[in-house]
Amino acid sequence: MRKVQQRARRRQKTLVILALIPGALFAGFPVLWMFSNSFKSNSDIFAYPPKLFSKTFSWSAYSAIFGDSEKVRFFINSYGIAIAVTILTLLVSIPAAYTFSRFEFRFKKTLNGIIISLQGIPPITLMIPYFALIVKLHFYNTYQGLILTYMVFTLPYAIIMLTGYFNTLPRELDEAVKIDGGNAMTALWKVLVPIAIPGIVTVGIYNFMICWNEFLFALTLTKTNEMRTVPVGIQLLMGQHAYKWNEMMAMSALGCLPVLVLFLFFQRYFVGGLTSGSVKA
Amino acid sequence: MSITAIKAEKMHEPPATEVKSFMKRKHAKRSFEPLLYLSPTIILLLVLMVIPVYLVVQYSFFDNVIITQFPKFVGLRNYLTVLQDPTFQIAIKNTIWFTLGSVVAHLVLGLGFSVLLNSPSLGKFSRSIFRMIYILPWIFTVAIVAILWRMLLDPVGVLNYLLIRLGLIHVGVQWLSSPKTALIAVTVINIWAGYPFYMMSMLAGIQGISKDLYESARVDGASWWQSFFNITLPQLKPIIISMSILDIIWTSQQFAMVWMTTGGGPITSTQMIGIYTYQQAFGRYEFALASTSAVLLLLFSIFLSVIYSRLQRRRD
Lengths: 281, 316
What we know:
heterodimer; A: 281 residues; mainly alpha; MetI-like fold; 2 domains; 14 helices; 77% helix; globular; disordered C terminus; B: 316 residues; 2 strands
């Protein structure tokens, strides 16, 4: 009897795995193909029949990327902007979220509603006025222009998520600081922020990803190649060296590296953050 | 979020015995304090959200904005021009098909994959391996998604090779550069890039369903399909609805992926509202017409956002 049950269970497991394989191929094959092509010579990429693992394995596409200062610059720009936006967003959103969580004031509900609804504005709608504004502010083709623009997209949801997080922390903590004579900011930065690190890390990762993935504003608000970010740089490569597929694949592999690493290390935070806020990075 | 906010508010009500003058002083200080902490946020969002939205709406009622110093007020003329533009009409039609195809496929794949991944007969190790693989497309930047699929779908690329070997086609298809297949191809790319987000939300939703429900269904002799249709689906309904609305909002605004794979072409076969807006602005310098189409997209998003927040409120 038990044997029959066990066999049925095993058969069910095999069936589930068989059902999962086509989906896994659909999801994973393009990724595998990207990595495998980044190690091929360019002529091997469209070899007939195509091979997943070529005999001519080499890092030459990667060294070509690292040897080209223009391409390295794309990465420096992307990392720099994403890190700057992440830090600035946290500095602005932490006090804001704290205020929403701990204070009562007039227009609180209205302001909160505005911040939530700002998330629904399509970036493409903002593209034209931004272009005009950024040119007028003399921020066209500068880091400041991109950093300011990106903060508009990271800030609303950072405030929403952090407010939710602060709401889960007991108020007695900051009350205790006030009894000891500290003000609200002492309570926030000395007591609450250290406890809220998991929430802050999640928000920080999302900030980074939003910036790292952004394409539209990096395209419309910059002009020269030394200001371009990785997504725009990849698009430029597509136009200029349409046949250097191995270099483009190497650049793509390097381009998804930070998110992949963040994902592997903070997987738990990712899934939790995804379901609590509706963030699509 | 709002529930916890309300609970927290109630917890913090001051006891009625507190001295009145003390409360007054505290209140005066408090009304100034929040404003101070919020001022960077308010200034940033005012300058970079509220003013731009005001500007884009204003632009849509003027002629020759941005490129001339003194644009002329033209009332609703831009709206008539855009709505009567055959290219815009094609863009709307393509956007609808693209969005519909993507959202339905996201839903089906997201639901199917999450149910499979949650299957009790799957071991812990194989579950986490498969989950990792299934999430992979989500970590890719849109530029990389575009370039990767351009390589896969190349006329002499690997997909065509596999299809020829399987005997499904005889010669390589130009998936992205033939008007017949381009819209389908970009929709498939968008399906690939977008389903993991659904899947993860559904996975969390399924894990939140009480095991007792399934247990009692099994005791009553319900089949797997019966408990799927009578327990899983109804329990997931709120997540399914809100995810679908969000997805419609996001997909209908899609620009970057289509721009980098087909650029809206060949001819107008993958023309969409996002592409149309961009081309009017930076291709033809018709910033007023671009603003008009951007405002129309904004109105559509607002409409869906209102539905979304109504549903959210009902859920709370």
